[in-house]
Automatic annotation (TrEMBL):
Lineage: Eukaryota, Metazoa, Chordata, Craniata, Vertebrata
Top-level lineage group: Eukaryota
A GO biological process held by the record: glutathione metabolic process
Cofactor or coenzyme needed: FAD
Entry's Gene Ontology cellular component terms: cytosol; mitochondrion
PANTHER family: GLUTATHIONE REDUCTASE, GLUTATHIONE REDUCTASE, MITOCHONDRIAL
MF term (GO), any: flavin adenine dinucleotide binding
Stored InterPro entries: FAD/NAD-bd_sf, FAD/NAD-binding_dom, GSHR/TRXR-like
Coiled coil: none
Protein's name according to its UniProt entry: GSHR protein
Length: 163
């Protein structure tokens, strides 16, 4: 999950909370409407711009970015092979990223109807209702953001034993 994307959406929810509380502080806020498409477009453009800046800074520092699937080799010097080409350097950083494990419908009926947290950032509109499965910080954050912006949200937490 893109941490910058999450921060933008968290800030959006904070603004919604402030607007909700304006009346308590004497501000009259007639009919305020939220537009998901606007924040999605602006957020995506912001992240693209920052990614370009970061990549340009890496290039200016004469650091090579090699994208692909890699593995360490048995060579005597620190060597990694990426898609058939070997790279040797005194220091090698492997930024693995992460991918969620999505169960099959045979494991959990209906699993294919869901989406991962990455799918949250691809939503074209705010869902009227949402169910978030998990209890990690990303699940709780997404549930809070969606709820604050107007999606009727439920958070499901698995328990291995009855408490």
């Amino acid at each position: 999950t893109c941490s910058l994307c999450g921060q933008v959406m968290w800030n959006t929810a904070v603004h919604a909370e402030f607007i909700h509380d304006h009346a308590d502080y004497g501000f009259e806020t007639p009919s305020v409407k939220f537009n998901w498409r606007t924040i999605k477009d602006k957020r995506d453009a912001y992240v693209r711009r920052l990614n370009d800046i970061y990549e340009n800074n890496v290039k200016k520092a004469r650091i090579d970015i090699i994208r692909g699937y890699g593995k360490f080799t048995a060579d005597p010097e620190p060597t990694i092979e990426v898609e058939g080409k070997k790279y040797t350097a005194p220091h090698i950083l492997i930024a693995t990223g992460g991918r969620p494990a999505v169960p099959s419908d045979s494991e959990i009926p209906g699993a294919s109807l869901g989406m991962t947290s990455d799918g949250f950032f691809e939503l074209e509109e705010l869902p009227r209702r949402s169910v978030i499965v998990g209890a990690g910080y990303i699940a709780v954050e997404v549930a809070g953001i969606l709820s604050t912006l107007g999606s009727k949200s439920s958070l499901l937490i698995r328990q291995d034993k009855v408490v």
